[in-house]
Amino acid sequence: MSLIPSFFGTGRRTNVFDPFSLDVWDPFQDFAISAPRSDVTNETAAIANTRIDWKETPEAHVFKADLPGLKKEEVKVEIEEGRVLQISGERTREKEDKSDTWHRMERSSGRFLRRFRLPENAKVEQVKASMDNGVLTVTVPKEEVKRPDVKPIQITG
């Protein structure tokens, strides 16, 4: 496995050249670590593992994030700096009992934060967010693109 992101390969799409993504690439996100990890590593994993889909429809930009186990009160959706959509929250770690023996810990915990620079046609004052069965959906309506009036010119000759 290469530590350099694949620009043309078949892996998941990287955000290296995406002008709208403000994510930081984590070169260690695909490494499986079976030993317990520190809080800092878990926090980095939580940030890197919060996957978000972004699609554009004729009417809106739609963001969908899988946030299993989180309540809507634990997630924050904000517009900052005028055109940056920020989705953040925190997954708390399960309370540990001293008599428990952990064999594997794969579910991430800690804070997560994702940021996306919205295009000029986004109506940032009309953003709506909803949470259903652990899936956050953020809808950012688009301004209607005004097409210039085209008047035919008669060719003489």
From TrEMBL:
<dbReference type="Pfam" id="PF00011">
    <property type="entry name" value="HSP20"/>
</dbReference>
<comment type="subunit">
    <text>Forms oligomeric structures.</text>
</comment>
<comment type="similarity">
    <text>Belongs to the small heat shock protein (HSP20) family.</text>
</comment>
<dbReference type="InterPro" id="IPR002068">
    <property type="entry name" value="A-crystallin/Hsp20_dom"/>
</dbReference>
<dbReference type="InterPro" id="IPR031107">
    <property type="entry name" value="Small_HSP"/>
</dbReference>
<dbReference type="GO" id="GO:0005737">
    <property type="term" value="C:cytoplasm"/>
</dbReference>
<keyword id="KW-0963">Cytoplasm</keyword>
<keyword id="KW-0346">Stress response</keyword>
<protein>
    <recommendedName>
        <fullName>SHSP domain-containing protein</fullName>
    </recommendedName>
</protein>
<dbReference type="InterPro" id="IPR008978">
    <property type="entry name" value="HSP20-like_chaperone"/>
</dbReference>
<feature type="domain" description="SHSP">
    <location>
        <begin position="43"/>
        <end position="157"/>
    </location>
</feature>
